[in-house]
Amino acid sequence: MLWIRLLPNLLPLDLMRSTKIASSSTTEGIGLGIVLVIIGLVCRPFISWSIYGWVIHLFTGCQQRAWQLAGWIMLPMTLISLLMVGLAWVLPATGSIPSLAQWVTPTTSWLPQYVTWLAAYTFLLRGQPFHALTFWLSLGGNLASLWLLYWGLKVFRPRRAVMATSCLTIWMLIWRLL
Q1: pLDDT value at position 144?
Q2: How far are the Cα atoms of 8, 21, 30, 118 from residue 11, in angstroms, in the given order?
Q3: Among 17, 28, 133, 141, which residue has the fewest nearby CB atoms (within 10 Å)?
């Protein structure tokens, strides 16, 4: 996220290098992470779009219109995401928390220390002004997406609009938690 650019690094690169999770070279470990992030950013929306379209097609029986509606219901959150990138540049998160490499000691188990550091990091982020704004903008985008979904399904199959909207809402919640 752009708005956490002034906070310490979330990835424990030093710890990963010491446990042989990442390679010994910094550039290869970071390069692998960048490649995985790019693949995730490219593949996740297509997977989501195809599943939304498939569920809409399942409930309505429409052919190409199902995937077209699935694309349209993603539009509000896409616009909100672009708006939040600009806001993140203006309102970066600031605070003083030691980096994970300074927090974790190699003599004890790193997982409880990581969980403690992550709790402190999360507490710091919750106090930022951008955090509340992110919540309300995301809620507005999700409600706009649900509105588009319901009225789009009401055009295709009026009797199944509520059922399909409910199923896709549950899928959206599960998908966002993953």
Answers
A1: 92
A2: 9, 12, 10, 11
A3: 28
